[in-house]
Amino acid sequence: MKATHIEHLGIAVANLEESIKYYEEVLGFKCYSIEEVKDQKVKTAFFKVGQTKIELLESTSPDGPIGKFIEKKGQGIHHIAFAVEGLQGALNEVKEKGVRLIDEAPRPGAEGLNIAFLHPKSTHGVLTELCEDPNN
Ligand code: ZN
Description:
By secondary structure, this protein is α+β, with helices and mostly antiparallel strands. It contains three helices and eight strands.
């Protein structure tokens, strides 16, 4: 598998608006995009930090994945996302190596990327997202 860089860090937050304020007013980043991903029951906010992004995730429903995560663990780092070349090929390869996949095939994520998640039970506790820009 060829991963080129950390595409983003996903951070679960209880309140998107308040969290954006912290990232903008304290850390000095600029939120350049807010997007709802209905499929995942989340609202996301994006910041650029060099070529890596921060993705803040607020749940739009208590029974969504972020809602459940916050209920269990509280706010905090939720996942790490690596940019890969050839997402389906990368999924096939890690599956062959015994990694449990959450997504067997790429699906549309925020920012126009195709994404797929690997199960944290197979990745030493880190929910891992692989993503690919279909326009690259
Ligand atoms: Zn993500």
